[in-house]
Amino acid sequence: QVQLIESGGGLVQAGGSLRLSCAASGRIFASTLMGWFRQAPGKEREFVARFRWSVGNEYYADSVKGRFTISRDYAQNTVYLEMNSLKPDDTAVYYCSAGQIFWGQGTQVTVSS
User: Which residues lie across from 50 on neighbouring strands?
Assistant: First the structure.
């Protein structure tokens, strides 16, 4: 069982930055894929970024490549999503995932134009 708690969302103007955090607890294996997904109103949940817990191999959706960075702090068991050059299209609820089996409750990100 893995518990995930996201934080760091909020309202920001276009061009601004936010850093999301995902505090993880429970059994996370070296090979677990940790990822961020998002869901905008009226749209399906979509992949944003992911990496393998102890290996790395970061991978990003084309829509965020070069603007978002996924990282982790092993000591704190926390996954981060650094979001820069935010656009109104980035507005969504952002979810942290472990293996696409366990999910956090989500954190709202709103980017105003």
Answer: 35, 59
SS3 at position 82:
strand
Evaluated on CA atoms 101, 88, 56, 21, the torsion sign reads negative
In this prediction, residue 49 carries a pLDDT of 98
- Per-residue pLDDT tens for 53-86? 887 789 999 999 999 999 999 899 999 999 999 9
Could you tell me whether strands 107-112 and 10-13 are parallel, antiparallel, or unpaired per DSSP bridges? Answer: parallel
Mean pLDDT for the stretch of residues 91-110: 97
Question: CA 85, CA 78: separation in Å to the nearest integer?
Answer: 23
* DSSP letters spanning 6-46: EE--EEEETT--EEEEEEEEE---TT-EEEEEEE-TTS--E
Instruction: DSSP letter for 105, please.
Output: -
